[in-house]
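Q: Here's a chain of 263 amino acids. Please give me its 3D structure as tokens.
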Amino acid sequence: MVLLLRRHARQYLLALLAVVLVLGTTSWAADDNVKDNDNDKDRSDIAKRIQASANVLDEIMGTPDKAIPDKIMSDSKCIAVIPSMIKIAVGFGGNHGKGVATCKTDHGWSAPAPITITGGSWGLQLGGQAVDIVMVITSDKGMQHLLSSKFKLGADASAAAGPVGREADAGTDWKMKAEVLTYSRARGIFAGIDLNGSAITQDKDETRILYGKMIDFADILNGKVPPPRESGPFLAAVRKYSTQAREQGQVEHPNPPGPPPTN
């Protein structure tokens, strides 16, 4: 009788263990599916942001009399776009947004690097609105600040509201005044904007999602990483507008072509 009870107890325990293992495996599989779905959603969100950045450039540059001057786009070292940055203020203002940046390399424009912009104050204001931001890094020094993965406009790198108008005078001294030219678009109005006090940093979480692992900011912007498939529209827009002036013959050359001097 005792042996029979022990045998039944052993069978019961084995059956219970099998149920626990099945339930555990199912739970783990469900957790993995949730994680996969979350990662897919996060990557989809980044893809939408990259596409939105391309749309911002297309819409801004599609209005010649109110666009970023061709000369500035042609001479740019890096371009960053923050689509729909949130500007919220009661009294003094602040801002926060996510976007992407790319830099010019020996082999073309780099893969996009996810960035965030935070802080800053734009004077007395009331209310909140979404603002598209474009930043054009105009010098090697400004590019080095960006490659550092964290810098503050106006403190680490000089910044100024950029001139507007595709054919704006290329002889102005904007290049002497600022390493970063800043632009904004809100409610259909596009203009230069003062973003001094705002901090630009690498978005490490979105970098991991976009590239599958953490990659150094400088490695991405120096062209050491192949661009992901989601970056196609954005890089195409950057290439288009950064070469537009050259294609239209609007870039000034220090030694214009002509017949050789005669003795």
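Q: Can you summarize the key feature?
A: Residues 25-35, 122-126, 249-263 have pLDDT under 50 and may be disordered.
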